[in-house]
Amino acid sequence: MSLPIPRLFKNAYNSIWREWLIYHLADERYKFMFDKPPKNEWVVLDCETTGLSIAKDQIISIGAVKINGNTLMTSERLELLVKPDKEVSAESVKIHRLRELDVANGLDPEIAAAKLMQFIGSRPIVGYYLEFDVAMLHKVIWRMLGQGLPQEKIEVSSMYYEYKNNQRPINQRGQMIDLRFDTLMKDLGLPVREAHDAINDAVMTGMAFIKLRQLLGK
């Protein structure tokens, strides 16, 4: 049986690990990402890509919006087109409606990543199936920093699972829950924007995050 690690030791470990990461940061201009995050602030992130393969596909647009408390700061948002070095397939155009012509004058991936990191700062990052978006970004950011994004990551689908699971009788907890985004939004009674647009998806995810924080008492 493993014993719980005292908070004091956890804090010491986290502090040592943070200093190690800063020391090995390839570009010290991004040390600000390790600062103490502003209280009750987050950044919601969404990326559109040429496909669903982390190994083969690339980001073509980024949408991000800030949250302050229970307010979605739609006036403080970031919308970027990113130029890929591979052809945008007809299949992906059907999903996100971004043609090769649309992204031809997009930003270089490293410039886009730099703008995004400046926008996020040290705030926790919120997303829906965020692991995929972060993995796609890390393909670029690791080349720049020698490491990935250090900010806390918050998964909205996990919050929704926790909320729905808590509503069930104890003997039914842990069973499968429909985590599809349209199901989540409808169940939470939230307005839906046109999907597969990076900023629209970020705004909708932000609304879901705020509602779920309230429902979970977080």
CATH topology descriptor? Nucleotidyltransferase, domain 5
Average residue-wise pLDDT: 89
User: What structural category do the secondary elements indicate?
Assistant: alpha/beta
Strand content: 15-25%
Rg, Å, rounded: 19 Å
Which residue ranges are poorly predicted, with pLDDT under 50 across at least 5 consecutive positions?
none
Number of strands: 5
List the secondary-structure elements in sequence, H or E.
HEEEHHHEHEHHH
**CATH class designation:** Alpha Beta
What's the arrangement of strands in the largest beta sheet? 3-2-1-4-5
Q: How is the main sheet built?
A: 5 strands, mixed
Span from first to last CA?
A: 30 Å
CATH H level: which superfamily?
Ribonuclease H-like superfamily/Ribonuclease H
The percentage helix is 40-55%
What would CATH call the architecture? Answer: 2-Layer Sandwich
Coarse morphology: globular
Q: What is shown here, in short?
A:
The chain has 218 residues and is α/β, with parallel strands linked by helices. It has 8 helices and 5 strands.
Describe the model.
This protein has eight helices and five strands. It is an alpha/beta fold. The protein has a single domain (35-216), classed as 2-Layer Sandwich (Nucleotidyltransferase, domain 5), CATH 3.30.420.10. Helices cover 43% and strands 17% of the residues. Strands 3-2-1-4-5 form a five-stranded mixed sheet, sandwiched between helices.
